Amino acid sequence: MKKIALANKATALPLIGLIIAWTLTMIASWVSMVSREGYEVIARPSNYIFLLACASVSFASLVAHTWALKALAADEGDALARASVRFATLGVVLSLAVTTIYALTNFLSAFNSSSQSQNVGQRFVWTYLPILLATAVVVFVLLRAFVFRSNVATAEGEEKPKMSARQKALALGYAIPILATAFAIILGLFIYDATRTNLDTWVWVLIISIVGIGVIFGTRFAARARQARVEAPKPKTALAAGAATLNFVLSIVFGTTVTIMSFTMGTSAISMLQVWPEWVEGQTVQPMPTVSMPTITWWVQDMAPAIVLLLLAVIGVYLSITERHRKQNSAVEV
Asked: Which pLDDT score is estimated for 27?
């Protein structure tokens, strides 16, 4: 069996992470509906499943980014390795953006879906902790991908190089704004839980001040890192780089559009399993919906199109990247 090249693995891994994230998102949507069947919603396991979905594609893209850099370091002329680096970098950035949106959405929904029966411990487990874990994922992946990466592998037994002053400044520049924002979010939720009222104007001022201070200090360290002396990049041909970027973007636009359609159709199919009972005149309590079990008809008519779209996006993006550069390499060898 022919061994799969490292660049091919780096291209495929973020797509595998996307499939896992899609599957976990559908499961989380179903679990969220099941947990809302009662009148009092205390446990929210779907928060952790959504977080696991974000983390799966984030770490898959991070590992792929490392593999792609190793493949490029081994052969700087490998066009597929170079494309894999760009693709994995895009995967890291998009996954971090989705994880950040998840944390902010969880923060905002905490005000609208608060249950009076929840104590501080329950609120920490189902609300605070997912936000903290999402923040940890963002900080770790961000620093590991863009600050502490190394293109040159150290030999076995050789001491790894220490972190430079520029890397330290970059790490602080990335981490401080994120950690400050997370702290401000947790502080706002804590005050809201303690008072059970809308946040006072001065509390909002405090929260925004914390975020602003984090941004200021992050900017300061980022500027310090930018002023550090770095090696000049190798010259590139502008037209060739522009054409490669254009082809790369066009292939990603297709995958992004189809992926969004797949997520939308999948969650819509899951929502069709929710059944609202008919309203009977004279009822004093709003009846709660129930969740029906999936049927073969539901799988074929509602869920299967979303799965096919996801596979089309994954296979299409992989082939558009690998086939284009494989043909280019073969043409050069001739």
From this structure: 95
